[in-house]
Amino acid sequence: MHGIQPGMTEEKRKMSKLDFWYEFASTYSYLAAMRIEPLVKAAGVEVVWRPFLLGPIFKAQGWETSPFLVQEAKGKHMWRDLARLCEDAGLPPFRQPENFPARSLLAARVALALNARDRPAFSRAVYTAEFAEGEDIADRKIVAAILQKLGHDAHALLAKTEEKAVKNQLRANTEEAQRLGIFGAPSFVLESGEMFWGNDRLEQALAWAKRQS
Question: For residues 132 and 62, is the Cβ–Cβ distance under 8 A?
Answer without folding.
Answer: no
